[in-house]
Amino acid sequence: MGSALNLSLTTIDSDVIQHVTKTSSGCTVRSYSHDTGSGPVLCMVHGYPQSSYMYILSFSQPARAERSRWRHVVPMLKDKFSMFAPELPGYGISSLPAKSDKRTVGGILMEALQSVFGKERSIIWCSHDRGARVGHRLAVDNKPEHKIIAAIFMDIVPTAEQWRVFANPAAAVAYYHWPFLAGPTAPQLIEAMGGRVYCQDNLNRSKGANEAGAARLRENDAVDHYCTLFDKAETISGSCADYAAGAFEDVVEQEKDQQAGRKVTVPTMVIYSKKNLGRMHDVEGVWKKWVDGDLRGEAIPNGYGHYLPEECPEEVAKLVLDFAGNYAKQ
């Protein structure tokens, strides 16, 4: 698979520990952690078509300091918060889950987290894209044993709301991959095109127009790492299964939630790209229908796109520190 698959958080930060957890479902979860010894754990789950490597520029301290714009600020995050960054099951590093709905995957990730930090630590779910959708499911379920005390969702609206906006032709084109990846022939078609090529195309489509942000997305060989993962048939089939669950089981469950009045009740911050997601949705207005409690919306301007933790790590880290700092003692 080449050297790109050897990249991980441990290659960037010697303080980060790698874990391999065999869960009760049979799924093997690879993850990375940094433990301050107390306080809540920031659970940072990546999305499509990436890996946990996306968080290196925002939340870890590169060994080669000249490549980090955060060598002075990141230590503040590391001093305040423990961190857990798992590889999303089915995305080429953790193994394929038996089922890909967000409740099942969320349970797998919580089991892996608790195997590292124990069952007493509280959780701040702080994730992007598909990882944020897993967090949304868990926050609505609100199981006491999960101890989720706050949530940060990056660049999403609820799954059911995303499907509804497809009545807008511009949105249907911009997010074409949603129905495509959920279809039964998607894995074969992507393999025929080449997983690397398809991954590169998706990264290009969703990045912002801000050139500095696009350059940060490419730093540390990240794009090659992601594209190398999509050379694997398992990554293609696993990520397609994620989107298929998002078209069926996940939407059904969310509609049941809304009918029953089940909403996110923990304090929530939604960080989103003003240029991308904000152009298609009234993001904060949409989330108000799904959150029963404190809700904070933060639109990132200046042409930054979907990959906010990489394109504008300064803005993201400041917002995370400001919001999560309210729960640092819990």
TrEMBL record:
Tell me, what's a Pfam family for it? Abhydrolase_6
Q: Could you tell me the superkingdom of the organism this chain comes from?
A: Eukaryota
The protein's organism comes out as Baudoinia panamericana (strain UAMH 10762) (Angels' share fungus)
Q: Report the residue ranges that make up the AB hydrolase-1 domain in this protein.
A: 44-318
Q: What is this protein called?
A: AB hydrolase-1 domain-containing protein
